[in-house]
Each structure stands twice: as structure tokens, then as C-alpha cells.
Amino acid sequence: MESYMLKKLLPVALLALTAATAQATERTWTWTYQGFYNQASAKFDPSFKVSGTFTGDDLNRDGTISLQELTSFEMGYYTADACANEYGAHCYVDAFSFSSDRKLAFKSRHYYIDDGPFSSGTYITTGEKVMQWGYFGPTETYTWTDQTKLTLVQLPVPEPSTYAMFGAGMLVLAGLRARRKAQ
């Protein structure tokens, strides 16, 4: 009788253990905004684009990834908050929101400051403008229009660890072997 109950309880215990160890997974998206009005040329530039990636998890399950739930933000060669120092690259995300209806809004800035006269940077406020400046050239400002398009691609969620899957498979095989021996 005791053996019979143990056999019934073991699959339930394994299922409970699997559910208990499941973790919320951060998601990563690539984003591209393309097609802006160039203020210097006074023309729409369909080829101008800004792009990057972000990673986050909707921890409070309100349907939006906020700045506090953002774990990584990259634009071009820069990763936010990973490059701040006195001289050199500075990268910040001042505001961020990504909703379940695929609306992305952020305010970011990255710039390079040299100890000499050479510096450059990009400021972006989605829905408003992209401003690029540099020591050797004029500041270029591109503004959003109705033709500015957002492309979002969610990167695949990583598969479970190979070793974890191997271990789970070995446990199942050991259980089947023990069951056959008991019969």
C-alpha cells in the first residue's frame, strides 16, 4: 500500500518541483525607427534610422516594461549605464516604456567627451526628435513624422539548459528502471 501511494505521489512531487523552480524570463527585443524629417535639408529622409536592443521583464504584470523593469538598453555601440565615466563614453536612459500593444517610448542620450575639444553625441526622445552633434560638424536634428516607422523583433527565449534537461531525463529513466525492478 505504501509503495502504491509513493508511486502516485512521485509524479505529483516532480511536477510541483518543476513549477516551483520555473522563473520569469526576461525578454529581448531589437528596435528600429526609420524615416525622419531632416531639419537641415527641410526634407523627409526615408533612409535615416536609429536602432538598438532592449531587455526587460514586466515584473509587476501591468502590461508595460518601465524604466525600473529595464535590464539592458543598447543603441548603436553604446549600452546604457555601462559606459559612464569622466572622459569617454556616457550613456543614459532617462525614461522608458514598452507596452504589450508594442508601443515603445524612451528618452536616451549617449555622448563621448574627450579631454580635448573632440566630443559628439546623440539624444533621442521618441515621438519628437533625434539630435546628433559633433565637434567637426553642425548639429543635425531629425524629427518624427507620421511616416516614421517602428520595427520591433522579439528575440527567441533561450531554451532550458542542456544539463538541466539531461538531468531530468536521467531522473525519469532511473524512475522507470526502479519501477521495473519493483514489479
From TrEMBL:
Query: What keywords does the record list, in alphabetical order?
Result: Signal
**PROSITE patterns listed in its UniProt record:** EF_HAND_1
Protein's name in the database: Ice-binding protein C-terminal domain-containing protein
What InterPro entries has UniProt attached to this entry? Answer: EF_Hand_1_Ca_BS, Ice-binding_C
The chain positions of domain Ice-binding protein C-terminal read 156-180
Does the record bear Cell membrane in its keywords? no
* Signal sequence coordinates: 1-24
